[in-house]
Amino acid sequence: xxxxxxxxxxxxxxxxxxxxxxxxxxxxxxxxxxxxxxxxxxxxxxxxxxxxxxxxxxxxxxxxxxxxxxxxxxxxxxxxxxxxxxxxxxxxxxxxxxxxxxxxxxxxxxxxxxxxxxxxxxxxxxxxxxxxxxxxxxxxxxxxxxxxxxxxxxxxxxxxxxxxxxxxxxxxxxxxxxxxxxxxxxx
Length: 187
Description:
This protein is α/β, with parallel strands linked by helices. The protein folds into two domains: 134 residues, Aminopeptidase (3-Layer(aba) Sandwich); 30 residues, no CATH class. The strands form two sheets. It has a four-stranded mixed sheet with strand order 1-4-2-3, with helices on both faces. The protein has a two-stranded antiparallel ribbon with strand order 5-6. A hairpin with a 2-residue loop joins strand 5 and strand 6. Helix 1 runs parallel beside helix 4. The longest helix is centred in the C-terminal third of the chain and has 17 residues.
């Protein structure tokens, strides 16, 4: 998953441990510097290729998740190509991460490959390091989109996998025909 020599920061290790201990199913990573929602894979299948579409087996679901955020964001959903993030207008404000730029060690890829958690990366604003007085506006631009995204946790199949006595089965593998990515049950 990580390239040779890649150092994992202590806080990243802590989040990885946390994700493995609790059965999260949906998350988002918030960044600054652009207005777009990206989804896995962030690392290209061919590391030497830049801007190479690199879909997961759950490509359609990731597009639905990313669009749920983008469509509820007042600026990302704005059809003007003359604004920050305007180069993503024709894509609906979303893009496969590796198609934008490929990098190794992203949390969205880790979550998809090593947990049951689907994560998108949200670039919440045009400035990488916004000033304090800009944060209130950024919050309001992203609040409804965050809520809309969180409601997506109710999409898909949910329930309890149990034995014939009604006892939950831990780590049962669940497969969906046509999607080559299994998930496992929690505790």
